[in-house]
Structure formats: C-alpha cells, structure tokens
Design brief:
Blueprint (H helix, E strand, L loop, with lengths): L13 H27 L30 H11 L8 H4 L12 E9 L3 H8 L6 E5 L5 H10 L3 E8 L19 H12 L7 E6 L7 H13 L3 E4 L8 H7 L4 E3 L2 E2 L6 H18 L1 E6 L3 H10 L9 E2 L2 H10 L1
Parallel strand pairs: 1-2, 1-8, 1-9, 2-3, 3-4, 4-5, 5-6, 7-8
Helix pairs in contact: 6-7, 9-10
C-alpha cells in the first residue's frame, strides 16, 4: 500500500517579486542620473561639432548667431594664418606713399647735399614733390629741416660723406675713410645716423674710393641692415660694389641712373631731364640725383608740374626699391 505524499508548504512569491522590481527601479534610476549628469557637464565626447552658419544666414543676426569652430581648429588657424609680428622696418615706416601702379613710368628725383647751404636747402624742401631729400650728416638744424621737408611731402635720406679717390677733394667732417678701423667707421656712421629721425636709408656723398672697398662697405651696410634702412648707391665710381654687396647681404637697395647737374648750366640740366624721361620710358623707372644748385632747382620747378601730363609719375626712391623687391 503506497505511502501518502507529503504536502509541501505554500510559498508566497509576491513580496520577492516586489523587492526585485524595487531593486531594478533603483538601479535604473541611479544609472540614468549618472548619464544625465555626464551629459549636462559637457563630458559627452561624441557630441557632434556644430557647423558654421551658411552665407545666406549671416545677415540674420537675431535668428542664428555665427558659431565658432572647435578650440583646436581655432588655435591651428591662428598659427598658420597670422603674419609675423613686430614693427615694419624703418625704410617702410618712413616711406612716402607712391601712386597706384597704372602703367606710367616712375621717376625718382634725389636731391643730395641738402642743408649745407641753408638758403638753398630751404628752397629745395619747398619744391613740389614727392622728392627724396638727402640731408647731409654735418648740416646744421637737421631735425627742423627734416620736419619741414616731411611737411612738404618729401621722403628723407641721410647723405653720408665717404672717401673719394681724388685726395684734393674734401668729403667733409666725419667722413668715412678706408684707413679707419672698424670701430672708427662705425662710430662716425652712427654719429650721422643719430642726428635726426624719419629717413628711409642712406646714400654716399663722394665715396669713389670707399665704396670700392668691400671690408669697409660691409661695416657700413651691416649697420644699415641692423637699423632696417635701405641703401642707394650714388655710383660715384664704376668700381663701386655698394649695390651688389647690399644685395648679397639682403638689404633693400637701388642705384642712381643719371646725374642731373654734373654740368649745372640751365640748358645742360634740362637736357638731363630729357634723358631721364627717355630712360624711364625704356626701363619703367629712373632714379636721378641732383643738387640744390640754382639752375637745378629752377629746372625742377618748371618740369615737375608738367610731368604727369607727359605720362610720368614722380615717386620717392622707396617706391622703386619696393617695386624691384616685388619683382
């Protein structure tokens, strides 16, 4: 006879199911809270990068402000596109503006030795311009004369006396001589360079001997380069190395094409101005050097006002140097 089965006790699962559901709800709540906290704190690295506004929407400032690119891209853009910092060199800071490059030949007229004769120096700076006025290092009242020349629209240079071949010629006080050591050349040059401010460069007064000696010229041009100036070779000798050496040293430079008044009779000066125009038409520009002689200034007073009608532009020397550098 089989034994009767033992009856198992009834288990109530409702409290267990309730507890499990409660634990699941608690875990879900904690997880959701952590995720929400991470999102609102900006830690979601997968968030899409906003794109800039389109060109069509740039005028509607009220509806959509322009969006900035991500910080990393902004930094790279600044590094790549930002120009070199620092002030422009002196030859550019003190340059007089040139006219637009409209195809006209350019002519730069440099007046040397200005300031030695005060009366003629005053007349020179009152000429119509822009001219390039080369003030002699040892002239008196240079700051005042320089300011007046600037006020009349002229560009300024420093006219530096250098040793000539002819021992009978006197280049003047503080002249640079090939017999001087480097320290003396530098001392005399700096004396002249510090006499006034606002000039774009230097050119040589006389110097047929000095400009042919490379060690001497290298001392001068090193100082020119250090001060951010340009060099105009007056070409007082066929043996000059000034312009060539300046080019080798990376210095902005140019060379004189003609002298206006080696013969300072009025008709001779006018003939040289005619030659200046022919040369400018041929090569696109010309640099001529004259002096504050009465005949030269009278010829310029009559010639300059008619220059534009004859198809030329009167420019400062720095404009031609800049054009040459641009190629």
């Amino acid at each position: 006879m089989p034994k009767p089965r033992r009856k198992l006790p009834q288990v109530n699962f409702r409290p267990i199911r309730f507890a499990a559901l409660a634990l699941f709800a608690l875990a879900f709540g904690i997880g959701f809270g952590l995720l929400a906290n991470r999102i609102f704190r900006g830690e979601d690295k997968a968030a899409p990068i906003p794109t800039p506004t389109s060109a069509k929407s740039e005028g509607d400032k009220s509806s959509q402000a322009p969006l900035r690119p991500p910080p990393a891209r902004t930094t790279l853009s600044v590094v790549q596109d930002r120009p070199a910092s620092g002030p422009a060199p002196a030859w550019q800071r003190f340059a007089v503006a040139a006219p637009e490059a409209d195809g006209r030949p350019w002519i730069a007229v440099v007046l040397d030795d200005v300031g030695v004769d005060k009366k003629r120096g005053q007349r020179a700076v009152e000429l119509p311009g822009p001219l390039t006025i080369a003030l002699m290092t040892y002239a008196d009242d240079l700051p005042a004369l320089a300011a007046k020349a600037k006020a009349h629209g002229h560009e300024l240079m420093l006219h530096v006396p250098m040793e000539p071949q002819d021992k009978g010629e006197n280049p003047g006080p503080q002249a640079l001589l090939v017999s001087q050591d480097a320290a003396e050349i530098q001392k005399r040059l700096r004396w002249g360079l510090d006499r006034f401010e606002g000039f774009v460069g230097i050119n040589n007064h006389m110097g047929s001997k000095f400009t042919a000696v490379e060690p001497a010229m290298r001392i001068v041009l090193a100082e020119v380069k250090a001060r951010g100036l340009l060099f105009l070779d007056s070409r007082t000798s066929g043996q000059t190395i000034g312009a060539r050496l300046a080019g080798t040293m990376g210095i902005p430079h140019a060379s004189r094409d003609l002298f206006l008044d080696v013969d300072d009779r009025p008709e001779a000066v006018r003939a040289q101005l005619d030659q200046t125009e022919k040369l400018a038409r041929k090569q696109g520009h010309a640099i001529v050097i004259g002096h504050p002689h009465d005949a030269t200034m009278a010829a310029l007073e009559a010639w300059i006002p008619k220059l534009a009608a004859r198809g030329f532009a009167l420019v400062p020397v720095s404009a031609i140097v800049k054009r040459q550098l641009a190629g």
